[in-house]
Design a protein that fits this description.
By secondary structure, the chain is α+β, with helices and mostly antiparallel strands. Strands 1, 2, 3, 4, 5, 6 and 7 form a 7-stranded antiparallel beta sheet that branches. About 2% of the residues have low confidence.
Length: 203
């Protein structure tokens, strides 16, 4: 099993980083904590996929009001890079960060089943709820957070000030946190087992 896991580790990592990532994966989910984040890239002036940003514009429906909220970048790093010139304008995809305690309070207003809520929250913290990515409390993110992968905002990259976003970073995911993030994105968006035979267009 361990040899199978190694096949899916990022090939660009150094031997030391690869070994450290493998060790973190082996200890999952008991180590979903500060190890999700890194300080290594804090001096870099660009935005990475998975970065937490303190303020990004979000359209509040159904009022259609625009409010700045903390968010996690979903777009691929290359797709939102200003150095990547293209023939069409690109957009950044991101998902608002929701405080876990506020989400729990909302659930408590909807149901009196405390056990069911506790089981749900435990599943969130173990990253087993497919459409929710859990963010452990650490550093500038001074609360437990979650993002809903089915709640996504799109904004023109040219309308965003990259250097200002860098100044307002809440966190950058570590190799381990980013690996888990990509797994959750893959599970949520690319599950192939929908159980439906789609066939083809008849000649």
């Amino acid at each position: 099993m361990q040899e199978e896991i190694k096949k899916f580790l990022p090939q660009f990592l150094s031997q030391g980083d690869s070994a450290a990532l493998f060790e973190e994966i082996k200890n999952f989910p008991k180590n979903i904590d500060y190890r999700f984040y890194t300080e290594r890239l804090k001096e870099e002036n660009f935005i990475l996929q998975g970065d937490g940003i303190r303020e990004l514009p979000n359209v509040q429906t159904p009022r259609n009001e625009i409010k700045s909220v903390p968010s996690v970048v979903l777009s691929n790093t290359c797709d939102i890079s200003s150095e990547n010139k293209r023939l069409f304008p690109s957009r950044m995809l991101y998902s608002p960060i929701v405080r876990l305690d506020k989400y729990i309070s909302l659930l408590e207003k909807k149901t009196n089943n405390k056990e069911k809520i506790e089981q749900h929250v435990a599943s969130i913290r173990k990253q087993t709820v497919t459409q929710i990515f859990y963010l452990p409390q650490h550093g500038l993110l001074d609360y437990e957070g979650i993002i809903f992968l089915d709640c996504v905002t799109s904004w023109p990259v040219k309308a965003l000030d990259t250097l200002e976003l860098v100044k307002n970073k809440l966190f950058t995911l570590s190799d381990y946190g980013f690996y888990m993030f990509l797994l959750k994105l893959s599970v949520h968006f690319t599950r192939i087992r929908d159980g439906i035979g789609r066939g083809r267009v008849s000649a």
